Amino acid sequence: MTLDPRLNAVRDDLADDRLAATASALRYVSPERFAISAPIAPVFRVPGAEHRETEFLSGEPVDVFETVDGWAWVQSASDGYVGYVRAHVLGAPMAPTHRVSVPHALVFAGPSIRAVLQGHLPLSARVTVAETLAGKDVFHRLVAADGATTGYVLGQHIGPLQPPRGDWVRIAEAFVGTPYLWGGKSWNGIDCSAILQLAIEASGGFAPRDSDMQWQGLGERHDAAASALTRGDLVFWKGHVGVMLDETRFLHANGFHMATAIEPLATTIARLEAQDLPVLGVRHVAPESAHTLPPMASAA
């Protein structure tokens, strides 16, 4: 059996000891849990690769198998993705209490919208709230694992650690105009499958990271003809995916617009067919998707 290296920490020389029964390697290690301390951490297939595979977000728990020459080989405990990150983005494990619930949350140096802006956090970043300050505006004071204050965010910019079920397609629409970025997973830059993953997660569900993974198991296979598509239908091509907003309008991050755009599905189909890329098929994820646990949720 060949294990997908995107979802299994296995190399010829080293592997996750939880894979000892299914993977062959020279040695096995028990990972150590850390959390992403940077707002956004690019993830690479190999150290120094030319392009990112995905991004891990602030507060995301990761299992670390090896750190060499400033690079850490890790696996996300959220979606199971494996890759290399710069070691300096790793921090102590967190006890998060909330998640960022907007595409781009501002982090202030003090509990005021006039305070110095010291950074930002992306949608679904995990945060630990130490206290809530109610004044003219409601602010939450964020702290690191050691209790040190890391900034203040507006009350309306974060929500429960486990979001309630909601209309994930509406959340996806908030990314219209966001620049297209291969492997991107935030409002700074995003790719086609990341929009689906983030939006579903932010509405209380779970989605795998890449479009081929989503084609294999996200939602339910839907045999509807192009004339019978509905909101929440995912249309797949090899290496590409997007979501229907209604019977005709299609939302997707793409390299043609170099942005997240809405256009008639027929226009997208014609453009990709001209590149010898026919539609693979359709799957449906209801706008109010049911919650399922991520694959690594129970990892130590």
Short description:
This protein has 300 residues and is mainly beta.
Describe it.
This protein is mostly beta strands. It folds into three domains: 78 residues, SH3 Domains (SH3 type barrels); 63 residues, SH3 type barrels; 117 residues, endopeptidase fold (from Nostoc punctiforme) (Alpha-Beta Complex). A six-stranded antiparallel sheet has the order 20-25-21-22-23-24, with helices on both faces. The protein is globular and about 55 Å long. The C terminus is likely disordered.
Note the gap between the termini: 25 Å
Q: State the assembly state of the protein chains.
A: single chain
Radius of gyration: 20 Å
- List the total number of helices: 4
**What is the CATH topology descriptor of the largest domain?**
endopeptidase fold (from Nostoc punctiforme)
CATH architecture of the largest domain: Alpha-Beta Complex
Which strand order does the major sheet show? 20-25-21-22-23-24
CATH H-tier superfamily of the largest domain: endopeptidase domain like (from Nostoc punctiforme)
Unreliably modeled segments: 296-300
Q: Tell me, briefly, the overall form.
A: globular
Major sheet, described briefly? 6 strands, antiparallel
Q: Helix- and strand-based class?
A: mainly beta
- Overall mean pLDDT score? 93
- How many individual domains? 3
H-E string: EEEEEEEEEEEEEEEEEHEEHHEEEEEHE
> In percent terms, what proportion of residues is strand?
35-45%
Strand count: 25
The level 1 CATH classification of the largest domain is: Alpha Beta
